[in-house]
Amino acid sequence: MIDFLAIGPSGACVIVVRDEEGEVTADEYGTLYLNHRCFKDDPRDQASELCDDVDAKLGSGSKRVQNIICFTRAKLFYLGEDQDVLKGISPVWDLSLAFAEAPEECSIGEVYEMASQIRKAYGRPPFVRPAKGDVR
Description:
By secondary structure, the chain is of the alpha/beta class. The protein has one domain (4-128). The chain is built from 3 helices and 7 strands.
């Protein structure tokens, strides 16, 4: 089940919310650990499966569906030098930064079309952030 789905100028983004408490670490390969143990259900696999589902429902002409894994109660740490392995992983207080830095790839019309498709497919509307200057 999708926790949150945001649609905006950067495309569609599945937001997976995890509420585990403790320390989440990532090694140099991007493997995530909770309190020094592998997750029973890998958050990256969960996010990937949900993205595939959204992509299938948006159809073949859709932009790439992205994801963010948001940890609400865990501290995040990285073991290594390549910080890019944490791309798409965020504590709740930094969640807005992921969207602020995302490139705008969709027109206003494409955003509203994706939102309409999501509403039909899932029976509820996504969060929609229109582009600057949109007055709908």
